[in-house]
Amino acid sequence: MLSPEKNRQLTQVGPGMPMGEVLRRHWHPIAGVDALDRQPVQAVRLMGEDLVLFKTQEGEYGLTERHCAHRSADLSYGYVEARGLRCNYHGWQFDVEGRCIQQPFEEAVNPQARAQCKVRLKAYPVKAKAGLLWAYLGPAPAPELPDWEPFHWENGFVQAVFAEIPCNWLQTQENAIDPVHFEWMHANWSRQLRGQLQTPADYAPTHLKLAFEEFEHGFLYKRVSEDTNEQHPLWTIGRVCLWPNGFFLGDHFEWRVPIDDENTLSVTWAFLRVPREAEPCVQTSIPTWTSPIKDERTGRWITSHVINQDIVAWVGQGRVTDRSRENLGASDRGIALLRRQLFDDIEAVQAGRDPKGVLRDPAQNQRVFLPSDARDFFLNGLPLADYQRHPKWARLLQHFIFHAGQPEWVQATHEAATGVKIQPIDVIDL
Ligand code: FES
Ligand SMILES: [Fe+2]
Fold first, then answer.
1. In terms of CB atoms within 10 Å, which end of the chain has fewer, N or C?
2. Which one has a higher pLDDT value, 391 or 276?
């Protein structure tokens, strides 16, 4: 349980807010590299700030205030040229650092205008990595952009999926340290949706034991269920609640990037090793797409895929969930750890220190290892026949289980990379 005051501290993300300042000490994924190639100017809203993201014709990325420094026209309707973004109202042009580099009429009437111009938009650094564009909205110097080892795994087919979730970031992130929900929200609920939950014997194996451990890049959670033991990778390796707003489940990452206090950008980056017969596989472009979360026919949330199911929980808790009415139990030990660390992070930032998880040393930021029960398989691969027999990996080879609405062009790239066609699913079968 949290008092309304403490809840506000953890959930408000605008500039100057305690948690807003903590989150501004980290890089966040905000768009797909390929999306900017399709549409080089995009409106984005991040942590309560309206911004415009663009890629110049020379290939540089910019992220600036959304409204022109002249008379506030919307720069997301501007257009890119060689060195910058041109406002569509009177043609002022801005480079990726926000400097105004052209004011056509001013320069026509005053040849000194360009040299004298001091006009500047607020601008934030953007970097491309792993098919995603990452932004840093904090004070200089920016820390390292984490170079996670899975970004370097080879012979894989990677895709990234975006979804806008109408609720606060923290309830989405609390899901990253909540092992028991898997049994109910994914396994049992899916069985129920499939009409397969008829007798007590149909229920998924129940959780028996949990453990939570802190480490440099977040927390690990571990579980033993009725069908596993302490030798099982879900206990020996576990899952990573990646600090401060990520989740690494061995084969995919999820990040929960605050758009503002009441909206969150969910970003999923999923790796799939191709069968040996499809090696070598080198992706020239990582496909990124946006997943629907609402069934337009019924007006209800989509419930068929893993992360869509999670989204039902997150939005169901309310725009900013009221934590003063909670009754936390033994299953929520991780939630308490996460909140305590976030309060420590607020204190650290207010005292002028880095919060948990900020990487500063470039030498330490090379192929940073994260625990993964998929790693051996992803590093070594399998022949197709063995792959198709595998109880877990076969599913990922022929379905995209994480988000609904995978476009046909992404399915075609999956098939071209793996040699295996994507099969539709009504409701996941875990
Ligand atoms: S408002 Fe942008 S150039 Fe005038
Ligand atoms: Fe989940």
1. N
2. 276
- Whole-number Å distance, alpha carbon 238 to ligand 2 midpoint, is 14
- Among all bound ligands, the one having the nearest atom to the CA of 308 is 2
293: Cβ contacts below 8 Å, ≥ 6 apart: 163, 164, 165, 301, 302, 308, 311, 404
Q: Where does the pLDDT of residue 204 fall: very low under 50, low under 70, confident under 90, or very high at 90 and above?
A: very high
Neighbouring-strand partners of residue 52: 43, 64
Ligand 2 centre to CA of 169 (Å) is 15
Residue 72 neighbours by CB under 8 Å, 6+ apart: none
Contact 290, 162 (CB under 8 A): yes
User: What pLDDT sits at residue 114?
Assistant: 86
Question: Residue 34: which region, alpha, beta or left (left: phi > 0; alpha: psi -120 to 50)?
Answer: alpha
Average pLDDT, the chain: 97
Tell me how many degrees the CA angle 265-355-328 measures, rounded to the nearest 5.
65
DSSP bridge pairs for 341: none
- Those residues whose beta carbon sits under 5 angstroms from the ion ligand 2 are 310
- CA–centroid distance for 244 within its chain: 11
Strand order from edge to edge, sheet including 123-124: 41-46, 49-55, 61-65, 123-124
Ligand nearest to the CA of 181: 2
For 55, the enclosing helix (H) or strand (E) is strand 49-55
Using CA atoms, how far apart are residues 104 and 56, in angstroms rounded to an integer? 19
Q: Are strands 156-165 and 288-290 parallel, antiparallel or unpaired?
A: parallel
Does the global pTM surpass 0.70? yes
Q: What are phi and psi of 79, to 5 degrees?
A: -140, 150
> Relative to the CA of 71, which ligand 1 atom is closest?
1
pLDDT digits (tens, 9 = 90+) for 215-235: 999 999 999 999 999 999 999
**Which ligand ends up closest to the CA of 266?**
2
**Using CA atoms, how far apart are residues 187 and 369, in angstroms rounded to an integer?**
29
* 385 sits in which H/E element: helix 384-389
Residue type, 332: D
Question: Has residue 115 got a pLDDT over 90?
Answer: no
Predicted confidence band at 391 (pLDDT cuts at 50, 70, 90)? confident
Return the ∠ at Cα 417 (arms to 411 and 418), rounded to 5°. Answer: 90
pLDDT tens for 116-157 read 889 999 999 999 999 999 999 999 999 999 999 999 999 999
Q: What does the block give as tokens for 114?
A: 């360009």
DSSP at 187: I
Q: Is the CB of 87 under 6 A from ligand 1?
A: yes
